Amino acid sequence: MTLMTCIKNSRRVDAAVARLVFVLGRDNIRNSYLDRLILELLNDELSFASHLLNIAIGDSYSRLLISDLERDIEADPVSERVASELFYSDLCRHLRSTIDASSLSSVHLLYYALSEPRCRTHRLAIRYGFTIDKLSSVLANLELTKRR
Predict the structure, then answer these.
(1) Which helix (H) or strand (E) holds 55?
(2) What CA–CA distance (Å, rounded) separates 94 from 25?
(3) pLDDT tens digits for 59-115?
(4) Residues 97 and 8: beta-carbon distance below 8 Å
(5) Which residues contact 24 (CB under 8 A, 6 or more apart)?
(6) Domain with 95 in it
(7) What pTM did the predictor assign?
(8) Which of residues 148 and 134 earns the better pLDDT score?
(9) Which CATH number fits the domain that encloses residue 9?
């Protein structure tokens, strides 16, 4: 059973996971899966996660955070114990069990990464002032704007 058949995700999350599973398998990379997924979503300028990051800390700081994350992943990769497809499948299954939404989005994954102290994304984001509170504030402001 593949990730796509067992969990309903947003198309953007599905596409990011599919790209990563392919590339990581092809290149035999077994490290930093969560950070690589967040990086994939933040590098996708059409993703809502990327848009939220730009609103929260500005485009120039967003680019710096992304480049720092890329550099840190390559310089000090975190070894993984399982294959990437199993990791992403388990991660999405876990997140789907904790949220009340019709699909798992890039925002859910971003919240998770920001709340996970062992995640490199969490540590770097804090340096740039991109916290769960900041993300929540940006989302609340967007919701208020949408209602007007």
Answers:
(1) helix 48-57
(2) 22
(3) 999 999 999 999 999 998 889 999 999 999 999 888 888 887 777 888 889 999 999
(4) no
(5) 30, 33, 36, 84
(6) 3-147
(7) 0.88
(8) 134
(9) 1.10.1780.10
